Every structure is written in structure tokens, then in C-alpha cells.
């Protein structure tokens, strides 16, 4: 089987299951099997696949037919121009989450060595690593927390890949910080892309958008309640932190789902809340100033 034949076969297999991405998916998966770029396979259509490559490619196409996310099949996902290792222990980074990074970088003149940036529920570490990459010259302190040790292992791998100095702590939300408040400075930035799908998420999301989510960690997708449970817990923990460190200033960046804007503003009713829309024009990010 040549590269052209493999692409034709793969695209035909995926056409009905992935109608919007079947061509790109087949190209990415074949390039992965050949350890080459898309440009290479598109310009060398006559090359024959080896005996090992053909069944490997067929296996990946079959998995993609079952709606396995391409990022898991490739073992990586791009976020903010950087490649991140991903597996089923972590949520796949989404383009809309880049809004958090954009918003913080837009105020980088206020960030210095007296600033600590904490990423809550860090997962793959994509947010905190992207920030570290772009803010390293300002020398703030970087911390990521996650309740999952296996997720933290992925974040550590990505940190080493991108050669950043980030401290990762195991625990729920801000619990590790409350136990060790000496780790942070008085100028605190918190990022939080917490599980915000509600308990009915499987029926509320439209197919095929929801199909690939079955392979992502449920604990990273939903709070099994109204989608705002963890933000309430985070708000309580921030108040506990302010009791320990009343002199602290805190700026919190929270990603949320469509329709949750009013609920999130109610949680942080005593603070100044700014809502930012994503590129689709949907309310996506809350910036909360303490």
C-alpha cells in the first residue's frame, strides 16, 4: 500500500464518522505512523508503507472511527503554539482556554519576581507552562496543583520538555497552598479551568461534539452537580487564604461554560468580576479581582 492508497482508504473509512475532519485526521494519523510531517506524506504519495506501518495505521483509523480523539492517538496536542504530551489521564487542551493565557499576558507589566501564578487543576500543565514560557524574563513563581497524581506526572513530563521551572503539588484546588502558605508571595494570580460540565452533560451536548469526551477523564469534565461546585469550593478556599494572608492581592481567572456567567458572578458577588467573550462571541472567562 502506498501513501496515496493509505490516505484514500483512511479518508473513506472516516468520511461518515468524522465528516468535518476526515481528511486532516487521516493525514495526521498516517504522518504519525511514518514518523514524518504532513508535508512529507502529501509530497511523497508513491512511497510504500512497511509491513509494520500499514497495520499500525489501520489500527489508528479504526480507533478514530470509534471517535477516539486524535490527540490521544497521536499522544500530543498543540496549545498556545507549544506541543504537549497528553494521554487519558488529562483533559485535551482546548483552543478556547488560550484566552486565559492571552488575558494574563495582556497585563504582564504588572508581573514581577513578587508575583506567584498558580494553576488550579493543572492537568497536562498547558496553561502554566505556556505562561512560564512567555513570562520567564519577569521571574514570577509558578505553581500547578491537581488532585490526580497521574495527571501531575504528565504535567511534569511537559515541564521537562519545555524546560521550565514549575512546582507541582498534589491536592484539591488550593489545599496544598493552604497547607504551605509560605510558598506564595503577596501578589497572587490564580488560573482555574475546573470541571464545569453539569451532571447531565452527556445528554446536553450534541453528537458528534460529545462523542470523543467519553475517552477523556470524567473527573476533569464534570463536577456531577451543576457545573459550578468546584468554583464555590475555590471561593471558600480563597477566603481561608485571605484569613491567613490578609495583605494578599489576588486576581482569579476562571474558564466556564456557556450559560454559567450569572451563576459564577453570584459566587463572587463581593468581588469585581469582568466577563470576557471567546472568539465565538460566547461568555467564556471570568476575571475576578480581590
UniProtKB/TrEMBL annotation:
UniProt keyword list: Methyltransferase, S-adenosyl-L-methionine, Transferase
GO MF terms, alphabetically ordered: protein methyltransferase activity
Domain Methyltransferase stretches: 111-195
Domain Release factor glutamine methyltransferase N-terminal: 5-75
Signal peptide (residue range): none
A Pfam family of this chain: Methyltransf_31
One GO term of the biological process aspect: methylation
Protein name per its UniProtKB record: Release factor glutamine methyltransferase
Organism, scientific name: Candidatus Falkowbacteria bacterium GW2011_GWA2_39_24
Lineage start: Bacteria, Candidatus Falkowiibacteriota
Amino acid at each position: 500500500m502506498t501513501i496515496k492508497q493509505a490516505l484514500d482508504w483512511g479518508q473513506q473509512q472516516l468520511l461518515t464518522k468524522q465528516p468535518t475532519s476526515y481528511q486532516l485526521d487521516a493525514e495526521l494519523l498516517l504522518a504519525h505512523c511514518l514518523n514524518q510531517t504532513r508535508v512529507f506524506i502529501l509530497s511523497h504519495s508513491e512511497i510504500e508503507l512497511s509491513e509494520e506501518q500499514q497495520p499500525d495505521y489501520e489500527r489508528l483509523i479504526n480507533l478514530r472511527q470509534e471517535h477516539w480523539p486524535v490527540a490521544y492517538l497521536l499522544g500530543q496536542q498543540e496549545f498556545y503554539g507549544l506541543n504537549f504530551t497528553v494521554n487519558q489521564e488529562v483533559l485535551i487542551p482546548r483552543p478556547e482556554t488560550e484566552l486565559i493565557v492571552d488575558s494574563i499576558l495582556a497585563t504582564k507589566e504588572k508581573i514581577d519576581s513578587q508575583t506567584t501564578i498558580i494553576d488550579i487543576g493543572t492537568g497536562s500543565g498547558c496553561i502554566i507552562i505556556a505562561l512560564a514560557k512567555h513570562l520567564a524574563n519577569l521571574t514570577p513563581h509558578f505553581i500547578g496543583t491537581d488532585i490526580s497524581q497521574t495527571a501531575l506526572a504528565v504535567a511534569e513530563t511537559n515541564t521537562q520538555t519545555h524546560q521550565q521551572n514549575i512546582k507541582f503539588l498534589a491536592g484539591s484546588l488550593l489545599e496544598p497552598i493552604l497547607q504551605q502558605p509560605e510558598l506564595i508571595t503577596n501578589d497572587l494570580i490564580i488560573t482555574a479551568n475546573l470541571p464545569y460540565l453539569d451532571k447531565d452533560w452527556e445528554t446536553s451536548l450534541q453528537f458528534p461534539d460529545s462523542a470523543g469526551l467519553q475517552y477523556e477523564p470524567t473527573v476533569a469534565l464534570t463536577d456531577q452537580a451543576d457545573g459550578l461546585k468546584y468554583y464555590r469550593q475555590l471561593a471558600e478556599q480563597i477566603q481561608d487564604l485571605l484569613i491567613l494572608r490578609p495583605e494578599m492581592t489576588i486576581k482569579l481567572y476562571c474558564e466556564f461554560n456557556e450559560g454559567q456567567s450569572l451563576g459564577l458572578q453570584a459566587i463572587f458577588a463581593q468581588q469585581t468580576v469582568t466577563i470576557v467573550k471567546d472568539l465565538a462571541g460566547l461568555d467564556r472567562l471570568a476575571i475576578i479581582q480581590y
